[in-house]
Structures are given as structure tokens and as C-alpha cells.
UniProtKB/TrEMBL annotation:
This protein's UniProt keywords: Cytoplasm, Methyltransferase, rRNA processing, S-adenosyl-L-methionine, Transferase
Protein name: Ribosomal RNA large subunit methyltransferase F
Recorded GO CC terms: cytoplasm
Keyword Magnesium appears in the UniProt entry: no
GO BP of this protein: rRNA base methylation
NCBIfam families: PRK11727.1 (NF008725)
Organism whose genome encodes this protein: Undibacterium nitidum
UniProt subcellular location: Cytoplasm
Main location: cytoplasm
HAMAP family, per the entry: 23SrRNA_methyltr_F (MF_01848)
Length: 325
């Protein structure tokens, strides 16, 4: 098996509470993964030319095994799996979003951490991996509603929850039956969420997604970059692209959020392209969002961010915190 000598070095700067600082401890991860079904991480780990344990990060199965081992080792989540071809989320970066959301709640509560078990979060487009609810329930004991338009993705998440009964009671799965809706059909008339979160589709079309894949392979030095290739972290159509791409999806989310302005304290969404922020902020002002925040997340050389907005007045925010937190 080939091992990527130039596998990414994990000297990234994560949130201070992120457990994934520094290099991967492959011996510890291999030991933790023994409780999971085969193939296991041990099947993909070898020493590279420098004698350092690593995996071939261009192999989807190896990346999936690594992320499953991280979930088991650090969060006691067992039996995590996704169908071949589905998006495989890098756990260290995904949990950063959760930690920064926790900071946002603390900031909204006069610097005091809200009672963890009282926090309810809506995850838009949870995918087959269900990673945000799994991480948020494990790290903070938050309650989640995980929504998606794809029933097979939700069925896969249900299987993961059945393997993890200790956190399954904190996560509810809901199918979005309308491909043109985001919050509608998911948020009930008498429901309130402290947070909503989303990792939106990035590309505007399948062709854009394939072009992005080729650029990634080329940047990794793959000689087959000009051929049709798949990303080592996968991704189905709904996970990778939608008409208009990221900007159009988030704009639709903003417009629809105004219909539920008193039912969610903070609406949030990842924004991959910093160039989209100006347009999104203008739209938020147009729909009369009262507070708008851009939260930067520095992860080594990668700059990530999410945008957060609320329609609640200061007095409404105070009442919300007093009643719920």
C-alpha cells in the first residue's frame, strides 16, 4: 500500500478546547479502533520513508477509518460509518464549529455558559455522517434535530445512533420533504432552538464540483488530476452542489430565517468563500437582522468562518436567556 510521504502535518491551530492539537497519535488511534468493525485503521497505517506512521490521505477508505478512530478515541462514538461516496468530514475541523458556537452562546449569556442540557440545536443538511449532532451531543450534552432531504442519509445516521444509545436520546432525525425549503417543514409551530447550524453545498453544479476535485488532486501532486477523480473525502450531489452554489443556498436560508425570527436565537452557517460575506451581510440587513457576526476559525494555513445572525431585540435576548439558560 502506498503511503503519502507528504501527508498533511497536523500543526494546525484549532480552538483551545479542540482535542485534536498536534500530530495524530496513530498507535493510540489504532488501539481505540479495535472496537469497530473491519476494515480498521490498522489496515491502512504504515511507516513512511522517514519512519513516521501515516496513511495515504488520497484513499477514501483510509480517511474514513481515520475519522472513525478519532470519533471513537475522543468522543466514545462507536460503529460510525458512511456509505461509499458520501462526504467524509474531517473531525478536527468539524468540532471547531461546535466549540465556537458554544462561545457564541456564552457571549450571549453575559459570559456565563448556559446550562448544557437546555441547549437545542438544529442541524440543516446533516448528511449521512451526522457528525455535528454526534459531536455536539458528546462534547456539550446538547440536544439536536438533524434534518436532511435524503432519506438514505438519515437512515445511515439512525444506524449510528442505534450503535450509540448513550447519546441517541439527545438526537432526533427529521426528513425535509421539500427540496426548496430549509426551515419550513422542520421547525414546528411551538418549537424554539438556541442555535441553527449548517455546512452548505459549496459548488454551483456537478461540473464545478468535478473541476474542484481535479484542482485538489493537482495540488496534491496526483498525476491523474486530468482524469475523472473522486475526492478522498467523497460527497454526493446534494452534499457538494446546488443551483447557484454556496451563496444562493445561504441567501435562501437568510430569507427563510426571517419567517422564524422568534423561534431561533442564533442562526448560523459556514461560509467557505470570504468574497460572499459582503452580499450576505447586505441581505441580512435588508431582512432586518438585529445582530450579525462573522466568526473566524483559523486552522493552520486554512481560514474558515461562519456567519451568525439574530432577529431578537436585547430585551428578547435577555428574556430568552432567563427562561431557557
Amino acid at each position: 500500500m502506498s503511503i503519502s510521504v507528504n501527508a498533511p502535518k497536523r500543526q494546525a491551530i484549532f480552538h483551545p478546547r479542540n482535542k485534536h492539537q498536534g500530530e495524530y497519535d496513530f498507535k493510540q488511534l489504532i488501539a481505540a479502533d479495535e472496537v469497530n468493525p473491519e476494515p480498521r485503521l490498522a489496515d491502512f497505517v504504515q511507516a513512511n520513508l522517514a519512519g513516521i506512521l501515516s496513511i495515504d490521505f488520497s484513499q477514501a477508505a483510509a480517511v474514513k477509518a481515520l475519522n472513525r478512530a478519532l470519533l471513537t478515541s475522543q468522543y466514545n462514538i462507536r460503529g460510525w460509518n458512511i456509505p461509499d461516496g458520501n462526504l467524509c468530514p474531517p473531525i478536527p475541523g468539524r468540532v471547531d464549529y461546535i466549540h465556537y458556537l458554544a462561545d457564541l452562546l456564552k457571549m450571549s449569556n453575559h459570559g456565563k455558559t448556559p446550562k448544557k442540557s437546555s441547549i437545542h440545536v438544529l442541524d440543516i443538511g446533516t448528511g449521512a455522517n451526522g457528525v455535528y449532532p454526534l459531536l455536539g451531543a458528546s462534547e456539550y450534552a446538547w440536544h439536536f434535530v438533524a434534518s436532511d432531504i435524503n432519506q438514505s442519509s438519515l437512515s445511515n445516521v439512525q444506524g449510528i445512533l442505534e450503535a450509540n444509545p448513550s447519546i441517541a436520546k439527545q438526537i432526533e432525525i427529521r426528513k425535509q420533504g421539500d427540496a426548496n425549503a430549509i426551515f419550513r417543514n422542520v421547525i414546528g409551530a411551538d418549537e424554539w432552538f438556541d442555535l441553527s447550524m449548517c455546512n452548505p453545498p459549496f459548488h454551483a453544479s456537478l461540473e464545478d464540483a468535478e473541476a474542484g476535485t481535479k484542482r485538489k488532486w493537482k495540488n496534491l501532486g496526483n498525476q491523474n488530476a486530468n482524469k475523472k477523480a473522486t475526492l478522498n473525502f467523497g460527497g454526493t450531489d446534494a452534499e457538494l452542489w446546488c443551483p447557484g452554489g454556496e451563496a444562493a443556498f445561504i441567501e435562501k436560508m437568510i430569507l427563510e430565517s426571517a419567517l422564524f425570527k422568534t423561534q431561533c436565537f442564533w442562526f448560523t452557517c459556514l461560509v467557505s468563500k470570504a468574497s460572499n460575506l459582503t452580499t450576505l451581510i447586505k441581505l441580512l440587513k435588508r431582512v432586518q437582522a438585529l445582530q450579525i457576526k462573522t466568526i473566524e476559525m483559523q486552522q493552520g494555513q486554512k481560514q474558515s468562518r461562519f456567519i451568525a445572525w439574530t432577529f431578537l431585540t436585547p430585551s428578547q435576548q435577555a428574556s430568552w436567556a432567563k427562561l431557557r439558560w
